[in-house]
Amino acid sequence: VAAPAPDYLAGLNPEQRAAVETTEGPVLVLAGAGTGKTRVLTTRIAHILKLRLAYPSQILAVTFTNKAAREMKQRIGLLVGGEVEGMPWLGTFHSIGVKILRRHAELVGLKSNFTILDTDDQIRLIKQLLQAENLDDKRWPARTFANLLDGWKNKGLTPDTIPEGDARSFGNGKGRELYRAYQARLSTLNATDFGDLLLHPIAIFRDHPDILADYHKRFRYILVDEYQDTNVAQYLWLRLLAQMSDSRRDAGQSAVNVCCVGDDDQSIYGWRGAEVDNILRFEKDFPGATVIRLERNYRSTAHILGAASGLISVNEDRLGKTLFTDLHDPEHEKVSVNAGWDSEEEARTIGEEIEQLQHKGHKLNDMAILVRASFQMREFEDRFVTLGLNYRVIGGPRFYERLEIRDALAYFRCVCQPADDLAFERIVNTPKRGLGDVAIKLLHEYSRAKGLPLLAGAADLVQGDELKPRPRAALAEVVRHFDRWSGLLSTTRHTDLAEMILDESGYTEMWQADRSAEAPGRLENLKELIRSMDDYESLPGFLEHIALVMDAEQNAETDAVSIMTLHSAKGLEFETVFLPGWEEGLFPHQRSLDEGGRSGLEEERRLAYVGITRGKRRVKITFVSNRRIHGMWQSTIPSRFLDELPEDHVEVIEASASYGGYGAGGMGGYGASRWDANAFSASSYGTPGWRRAQAAGGMGDTYQGGRGRKIEYNEGGVSGSGARAAST
Ligand code: ATP
Ligand code: MG
């Protein structure tokens, strides 16, 4: 008869317990959202420590975010109590990579106090290299090369191993030399970029078997969360550390104790080089692996789970799995789908719902808004400031704090308040106008001596000949621009003026020329900024509003709604989840539709699955019929994902009465395509009305409709029946 389970194991189901207690040998936990994968990992670490199978320092655990690592540390602390000294090696691939690299830096030509470059530093460095090679950075932008580098490093490729085609693709065939020169430069600077935090350790492990052997001896237990989103470099790094070896045998191990947990349906970083196949390869890499499936979901109600399972079953490229929940209370709300007129109404409705929930006693901390594209956040942030609702933006700066928004605002501030030196400094050479440090320093000295703000000082300075001709001409142009814009302040509509400023200054063009992955998002944000001005009378009025928004508290202690992208919501859970913007072109995102293939669309669908499965009690999806995308009002089509939600689990909210409130003229440009509320009614969810709209929108050829794969839903639960396609 087995002894009664200790407290920390008592609540686990048999499969979870097996995953915790099978401490020896390779284990793969492959299971859907909310089945307790992360909880299993945490408990497993506690278990290993409780049984004293290893010292904390002999455990290596990898999480996907630093936040997840902090939470896991906390929970382990609670589970084991104060009994254990020290902590496991617990962090993201990068943070563990740094730790390892610091110990052996000299082996790759670095000192242990090396610095880690941020993106800005990296771009500056690449620009210098391009200049040295006489490569025009208009034709060969530094950011493009930074992206290439990133891609190579994600795949674990060094200058010697990048494919010939790649090497030739950049800088007149100089890709390989540039990569080499870049690494040499980093080494002189005693610096690394993010990719090197894994690539250097990989090189060290490969070139120094004795060091690798030490790590084999050290790490008795290795654990990885979110395994489906590891990229090739991470995989290589992990495989080296998790090899069976003589040193492990000498230490008495008969197998590698590696435990990876993941969900192929939640692989959402393919665009950043993640390879879901790593999960499928596990049993080959670690022969004799125990594969454990968890099928009971502890997070969500049956309706939420049913909706998510139905949606994801449309994907063909999946392993397929069963999920069920015991949360069958008939009181539970269905997943709601709510239509709105435009994004402003969407934000207003969600704001009201949040206030209602709050009045009923729900905490803001338990609510989240998950968006597909970060530009969507702006409308919510503005609305919440107006309502006085606390919010926090997770995984990135708040809308008005983003780089491109701050730059744009700096331009507007200078126009409205010519003495705003901070703003002027920020943009005087952004975009690059050939105003170097020398010229700027001179301008500062000159202005200070004359007791003038910088812009006025500049107007003065360009009259004389203190500056060299090139910077003088550049600065004179800046002065001329600001004169003109200030003059237009009282006569031109402020949104037009704002757009003009960004165009004439070359700022918009700078991002248009930029081929980095973030550039399109930044342009979207700039358009959104201008759109948001529409709600204010004037540029100064708008700037005043911004000052207030910027001041809004963002404090971890206060009760606040979370706003974040779907990508950064991975692994998290909330009582109530709002999912706005379910429209074709936004979600699924246009980029995935343009690619044409199945894989991009399926990744979008997985993202939708991640979104729905974040909800514990309430999931509220919204879409609107008019959205301003890329600065233009477009009438939009409801997302195909809506059609794919099984009807039984969805409640369609009748279109709100506020439609009539908008005169067609006021919004401009959308004309006749006004969404017909009759096509959408509570009783006929997914009626031909939507399909008509889809056909009219020209999406007909790529759109397959809900494939209606049957989701069985019996008393016991919901089973998605997706079978993995033969392509793997
Ligand atoms: P995701 O795929 O979204 O990362 P996951 O599989 O990692 O999900 P967890 O976050 O570990 O799931 O667990 C989901 C929720 O269910 C958590 O609130 C967790 O505490 C709870 N949970 C997990 N297992 C149990 C259990 N045996 N008893 C009660 N609650 C549980
Ligand atoms: Mg998890």
Features:
binds adenosine-5'-triphosphate, EC 5.6.2.4, 8-stranded mixed beta sheet, 728 residues, 12% strand, DNA binding, 32 helices, 6-stranded parallel beta sheet, binds magnesium ion, isomerase, helicase, alpha/beta, hydrolase
Describe this protein's structure.
The chain has 728 residues and is an alpha/beta fold. Helix content is 45%, strand content 12%. It has 32 helices and 19 strands. Strands 10, 11, 12, 13, 14, 15, 16 and 17 form an 8-stranded mixed β-sheet that branches. A hairpin with a 2-residue loop joins strand 15 (615-629) and strand 16. Adenosine-5'-triphosphate binds next to helix 3. Its EC number is 5.6.2.4. Residues 10-301 form the UvrD-like helicase ATP-binding domain. ATP binds at residues 31-38. GO terms for molecular function: 3'-5' DNA helicase activity; ATP binding; ATP hydrolysis activity; DNA binding. It is an enzyme of class 5 (isomerase).
Q: How would you sum up this structure in a few lines?
A:
It is an enzyme of class 5 (isomerase). By secondary structure, the chain is an alpha/beta fold.
What are the low-pLDDT stretches, counting only 5+ consecutive residues below 50? 656-728
Report on the biggest sheet.
8 strands, mixed
Radius of gyration: 28 Å
The 3D shape can be described as: globular
Question: How do the strands and helices of this protein lay out in sequence?
Answer:
Elements: H1 7-10, H2 14-21, E1 27-30, H3 37-50, E2 59-62, H4 66-80, E3 89-91, H5 93-104, E4 115-116, H6 119-132, H7 142-154, H8 164-169, H9 175-188, E5 191-192, H10 196-207, H11 209-218, E6 221-224, H12 232-241, H13 246-250, E7 258-262, H14 277-280, H15 282-285, E8 290-292, H16 302-312, E9 322-323, E10 335-342, H17 343-359, E11 367-371, H18 377-387, E12 391-393, H19 403-416, H20 421-427, H21 437-450, H22 454-461, H23 469-488, H24 494-504, H25 507-513, H26 519-533, H27 539-551, E13 561-565, E14 574-579, H28 590-595, H29 598-612, E15 615-629, E16 632-635, H30 640-643, E17 650-653, H31 664-667, H32 688-696, E18 712-714, E19 717-719
Parallel strand pairs: 1-7, 1-8, 2-3, 2-6, 4-5, 6-7, 10-15, 10-17, 11-13, 11-14, 12-13, 14-15
Antiparallel strand pairs: 9-19, 15-16, 18-19
This protein binds adenosine-5'-triphosphate and magnesium ion.
Magnesium ion (MG) binds at residues 37-38, 571.
